[in-house]
Amino acid sequence: MKKNTNHCRCVGLRLSPALPTMLRLLLICLAVLTTPPAAAEALRKHGDDDDSSSGGGCDAGAGKAPSPPAMWVFGDSYADTGNLGNLGRELTHAWYDPYGLTFPGRPTGRFSDGRVLTDFIASAMGVPTPVAYKLRRGASRALMARGMNFAVGGAGLLDTGYFQRNISAQIDLFQAQHPRSSTRGCDDDAGVAVVVISGNDYSAIAEKDNSTSAAIAYIPTVVRELREQLRRLRDEVGMRKVVITNLHPMGCTPLFTRALDYAACDPLANAGAAQHNAALQSVLAALDPANRTFFLLDLNTPFAAFAEAAPAAGRFEEPRRPCCESFSADGYCGQQDDGGKKQYVLCGDPSKHFYWDDAHPTQAGWDAVAETFRPKIREFLLSPDE
């Protein structure tokens, strides 16, 4: 459900066609070994600051209230907090200015000017943002006991062609670190899984076939795989609480609205997102009729409310125009020419924009969305699972 351009425009990763195929593959493979020093140092400090709490969803001791559950994140760039390795500005521009402008004032690999969905879900749960898998060596044991983020920009449920670990492979990583027998104790609580899907599978198909309709035809295949991974998290991994996002209105992202002078959303892409969401609801109804294990985190409704609102009437003065706008339709936020000259324009106040770049919300956008789900997540976590 994504328009074709001359560059790979997946949510979270760009591959330049000018690079030879083998070189591109080598660079992607190197990503798993790359950890920016600044990010690692910041994480070590964060871990030291939090070293006094045990976490993990267990009782802290006799007479003490149980600590919040561990949070395990699987997904793509809407959830990634630093797992996509730094391969240079063109390939992985979230590690470069102006990303991270609002928080923490420098790039951290988050696809925003600041915090992303993972940060706001963690806050709603009452836990620190889980350590990114790539940065785990710099984290304290106490911090890692509270969860981990396996999400990586560009990932999908299936192989998207962007050389990123899909959801199944991310769950494999969790199981390798946490065999089922070792995740038990404390009333058999493995924590809470969060699964974030923002449409890379559909973007890849639309890119390949130059057709939004082809992406829509792919919905049954994607949803079948999603069903399998949700079942796996419950039945094989042993998660008793799983949060799963539905698909935002993709036609309202600047990638689509730019062609409409940012005045409206693309109806066909939005219809595809609605079809995906209807199929997902059917899957959850069949897997969990009592709504005890799975919680559908509705992103579509608040995204639509904010992005489709008239600028004068809505919360954001610029609901569909990105804060960071490339000069050309096939450019990207943070792009520079060979001489280092900026090829993008940056807004004066990101909080007035719902979108940061052509696909990802600003921190203010995510904060507005989070206001709609904070109490619902807390209610879900407190609900009985038996």
From TrEMBL:
Signal peptide from the UniProt entry: 1-40
Classification via SUPFAM superfamilies: SGNH hydrolase
Keyword check for Hydrolase: yes
Gene Ontology molecular function: any one: hydrolase activity, acting on ester bonds
Disordered, as annotated region: 43-65
InterPro entries: GDSL, SGNH_hydro_sf, SGNH_plant_lipase-like
Keyword Hydrolase: yes
Domain of life: Eukaryota
The entry's keywords: Hydrolase, Lipid metabolism, Signal
One Gene Ontology term from the biological process aspect of the record: lipid metabolic process
Similarity comment: family membership: Belongs to the 'GDSL' lipolytic enzyme family.
Protein name as annotated: GDSL esterase/lipase
Organism classification: Eukaryota, Viridiplantae, Streptophyta, Embryophyta, Tracheophyta
